[in-house]
Structures are given as structure tokens and as C-alpha cells.
Amino acid sequence: MSEISRADVEHLAKLAHISMTEEELTTMAGELAVIVDSVKTVSEAVSAEVPATSHPLPLTNVFREDVVGEVFTEEQSLLNAPDAQDGRFKVPAILDEE
Amino acid sequence: MTEMIRLTAAQMAEGMRAGEFTSTELVQAHLDRIAAVDGGDRGINAFLHVSGEEALATAAEVDKIRAAGGGGTEALHPLAGVPIAVKDLIVTVGQPTTAGSKMLEGWMSPYDATVIEKVRAAKLPILGKTNLDEFAMGSSTEHSAYGATRNPWDLDRIPGGSGGGSAAAVAAFEAPLALGTDTGGSIRQPGAVTGTVGTKPTYGSVSRYGAIAMASSLDQIGPVARTTEDAALLHELIAGHDPKDSTSLVDEVPAFAQAARRQDVTGLKIGVIRQLQGEGYQEGVLARFQESLDTLRAAGAEIVEVDCPSFEYALGAYYLIMPSEASSNLARYDGVRYGRRVLPTDAPLTIERVMGATRAAGFGEEVKRRIVLGTYALSAGYYDAYYGSAQKVRTLIQQDFDAAFEKADVLISPTSPTVAFPLGEKLDDPLAMYLNDVATIPANLAGIPGISVPGGLADDGAGGQLPVGIQFLAPAREDARVYHAGAALERLLAADAEPLWARAPELQTPAAQTAGE
């Protein structure tokens, strides 16, 4: 069984910016240990000589002329904003503490 | 009039051309069907949003052009006026897009996905947006934040996932065509368990612009339909190069529908993948699979066995690559520019706390599980062992496919190891849920096309009979081959019995359910 502790999950959740309750951390530690255990065979399947494939088909860079195309209007950009003011995204004040 | 919803998309198109009915009548019949079977406690719940007014307006446009005759009529796309449903992972102007998540509840896209632009240009009335596992993460549509979809064959069973809504809508005659997305089997596996046809096109052959990203190197938009020909017609409509998608292929779009109409399979070499049968596959599924092989052989196809030894590691590789890419793609849901924002009440506000609370409230359990798993696989110290190794397995799987396609024109396997399982059965066991995708995942890792076509019925273990799907795979860019082979099997099986899609049980309307109680 893989060693994934509650503390490991707490660290990962912090990196992923997801707040979790004590119960969630404990449950997820158990689940992740089982999942990681089942997928770790992949490291046994390959050797250093096997090249990695990051993408199913070869990719080439795509360029376009540096000209202004169709862009969203201010209204479209702010359409789904949780909060907006004066044509800008409005976020909570975070500088007056800690 | 209600019988028009039981035609194939090709028959609907023909019926409108022949003046037997109008698009408005056709769309209204589907809206009536949705109203009758989709809602209520025992409704299918295939639709998260129904856009009746918009669909009727498009239908009226088509009818007007037809009524006027002359020049405009020739310009109409062959499928013009045939309604379509769209998986709610594909963005649409004027209709909400939620990805099945509370994070995007009420979100309105300021732009259309490229496939939607094509559907609108061809004047297919869009009936609405269909249910899915949240952000396409799941194999049963039970991970939707808006409730599970029911399988029209048995309302207590799952319709597959993540595109269960699209498949169920087609199977329940709520729509003749639907769009889905397939990252590890999310078009093919729901197709298999609902008795419908689903295709995962070659990676890059259909633009992903406007498909909300889960795992960008695996995701692919594709068609859901009742017949192979219908799927091919829709595939032709949505395929083609798109400069807005940097992974879009520049190839010409082949004639898929023509391939689906080819009658002869004499000499077609079909490779049976040794690793995708046996352990873990239900007896009834294997029996229908064997019958399909016998049927194809009797019709002149050559059946050969192929070995794909690295497939043993495909599921593991997929469940490292997919969450890794998903953890990166879903980082955009930070509560700043769009989506939900939750302000924590018990602490001073910091960026971390607002993001943490927002993502805790907006994401469901399975999404959180995969983000954390992906974060783990990508973290320092584990990257080489997990993500790096998984990318190497991908190379081995491509090599397996290359070798197999030297021996065979197409490959065949059951699409899903089991028939539809009861709702709730695997909800608390993520690993058991992940095993559903064992036969479909290799195609996504290699970027090759695949199709699932109905292969008959098998015992569900509780006295009922449920659909079994047969999967065909072909080399990249050879999608026409899967349509040829899929249509051949479909035609051969229909020679002995009514097509499977026409044999779905009658659904009771909520009013009838109440009266019967």
C-alpha cells in the first residue's frame, strides 16, 4: 500500500487551492493510496530507453499575423464576473490584514 | 406525428425534403417528447437546459427556405432542420454552459465552440444542453452536480458517462443526434450501454475550440446517433481544420457517410485484441462479442488475433495523465473572472482562502479527487515515476497499435466490460468506476479513431436484457474504416432482428407513472 498520509493530502490540497475538512482529508488519503497503488505499475512497464510521448500526434507551432482580430468587448469580458466595477473585475480587499 | 421522432436522422432529413413534415413539426415533436419523459422523479434527466424557442426559430428558417423553393433549397445542408442536442461541456452563445458543475452554474459563454458554429451554419436546431459527469469526469453521469441521468433501457441504471445525457437523449428519442466529448471513452461507453452509436474521431480532426478542457491531449468532440450513417453524417459536418485550435489537423474531411454505406466486408481484416476480453468482462458481453465476430466472419471478413501487451498499463497511464492535465486545466476556476466566488466567513480574506473556499464549494468530490491526484503525480519527486512513466507507456501503446495495424485494417473489442450497472453501485468505489473505461482508453492515449455500435442484448443479472456495445478502432486519420466496419456489423445484425435502437422499452410519461402508482 502506498504511503499517502492525511498530511500529504493536506499539502496537496493547499497546492491545488482546495479547502478541505478533516473528514475529507482522511477519506481522500485512503482513496488516493488505493488509486496510486493501482497505477504505479506504469513505472515498472517502462525503461529509460523508451521515449515519452506527450501528445498523440506531432505538433507544430501555429503562427498568425500580428494584427488585431475580433476581441471580446468589455461587456462580454465582464459578463460572467462574480463582481465588477467601472469596467474592471472586482476582487475582495486582501491587503489590510496579516 | 409522434412517430417521426423514431426515424433516423437521415430519414428525418429525407422526410423534410419530400415534404412529409416540416422542421418545425419535427422540432416540436422532440420538445414534446422531452417534456413528457425528461423531467420528474423518474424522468431521464438527459437535459440540463432546453432551448425550445431557439430551436423552433431555426426550424422556421429552414421551413421558410424550403417553402420558397428555388436557389436557397440547394444551399441547405443535408441535415438542415434535423434537431440536435449538445453535451453541456461545449460552449454555446445564448444558452448556459455548466460542465455539469456548480462552479459554472448560470455561466453564459461569450462565444460559440467551432462545432456549434458549424451546426448553426448548417441550420440544425439545437434542442438544448445535455447532462454529464462534472467536467466530464466519470463513467456514469452520477457525478453531475445536477443529478444523475437515467438509462432509458432501465431507469434504475446508469446511462454511461461522462456523456450519459447525450447518449440517453438519443436512446430515449428526445433527439436524433447529439454531440459529445471523449477523453477516455465518454462517447463510446455511454453509446454501448444505451444501445446507440458513438464515435471518437481521430485526435485533432474535429476542432476542440470551445470544448471546456479536461485533459487537452486526450479530449475529442464527436457524434452520438442511433445509426452509423447518422453518426457519419454529423461527423462530416463537424470535422475540418480550425485555425483557432493549434492541435487541429489540416487534412481534407473524408466521406464518412459514404464509407458507412459500403455493403461489402469481404477481405476486411479485423484484429481481435487479445488483451480486451476475458477477465473482468461479463459473460453476456463476451457472448455478444463472439457472435459479432462469427457474423462478420460469415460475411467474408477475415478475423485475426492481435497482441497489445502494453494495454495492461493503459488504465494506469490514463489515470495519471488525465488528472495531471485536468489539475492544470481546472486551475482557471479561481473565482476571479468567472464562475463561482465564495468568501470565507471565519477568517480574514486572503487570495488563498478565497480560492480555497471557492474551489471547495464549486467542485464535487470526483473533481477534487482528480485534481489532488494530478497535483500529486506532477509534484517534485514523483514526476518521473508517475507522469513521466505514463508518457512512456503512451509510446508503448502507440507501438502496440502500429504493430496491430500491420496485421489488421481495423481492431475490434467489446466497448465496455459490462452492461449498464445500477445507479449508485460504484459511486463509493472510484477504482471500480475507472475500470469501465479499460477498453476505450487506449484509443485516446494514441489519438486514433474508435466507434461503438450496438451488438445486441445481454442479461443484466437481474432478469432484464441490456445493450452491449462493440468497438472498432482504426489508425489515425482512417476514421472511414471504423464507419465501414461499424455499419457492416450494424447491417448484418439488423438482418436478423429489428435494430437495437428501435427496441428500447416504451417510457412512461410522468402523468402515466402517477396514474400507475
UniProtKB/TrEMBL annotation, chain A:
Lineage per the UniProt record: Bacteria, Bacillati, Actinomycetota, Actinomycetes, Micrococcales
Gene name linked to the record: gatC
Taxonomic superkingdom: Bacteria
Subunit field text: Heterotrimer of A, B and C subunits.
A GO biological-process term: regulation of translational fidelity
Gene3D superfamilies: Glu-tRNAGln amidotransferase C subunit, N-terminal domain (1.10.20.60)
Protein's name in the database: Aspartyl/glutamyl-tRNA(Asn/Gln) amidotransferase subunit C
Family: Belongs to the GatC family.
UniProt entry tagged with the keyword Transferase: yes
Automatic annotation (TrEMBL), chain B:
Catalytic reaction equation(s): L-glutamyl-tRNA(Gln) + L-glutamine + ATP + H2O = L-glutaminyl-tRNA(Gln) + L-glutamate + ADP + phosphate + H(+)
Biological processes, Gene Ontology terms: translation
GO cellular component annotations of the record: glutamyl-tRNA(Gln) amidotransferase complex
Superkingdom as given in the UniProt entry: Bacteria
Record-listed E.C. numbers: 6.3.5.7
Annotated PROSITE patterns: AMIDASES
InterPro entries with a match to the protein in the record: Amidase, Amidase_CS, Amidase_dom, AS_sf, GatA
Keywords: ATP-binding, Ligase, Nucleotide-binding, Protein biosynthesis, Transferase
A Pfam family annotated for this UniProt entry: Amidase
Domain Amidase: 25-482
Keyword Mitochondrion: no
Molecular function as annotated in GO: ATP binding; glutaminyl-tRNA synthase (glutamine-hydrolyzing) activity; transferase activity
Active-site residues, record numbering mapped to chain: 87 (charge relay system), 162 (charge relay system), 186 (acyl-ester intermediate)
Record keyword Ligase present: yes
Assembly and binders: Heterotrimer of A, B and C subunits.
Assigned protein family: Belongs to the amidase family. GatA subfamily.
Main function: Allows the formation of correctly charged Gln-tRNA(Gln) through the transamidation of misacylated Glu-tRNA(Gln) in organisms which lack glutaminyl-tRNA synthetase. The reaction takes place in the presence of glutamine and ATP through an activated gamma-phospho-Glu-tRNA(Gln).
Protein's name according to its UniProt entry: Glutamyl-tRNA(Gln) amidotransferase subunit A
Protein source organism: Nesterenkonia xinjiangensis
Gene name per UniProt: gatA
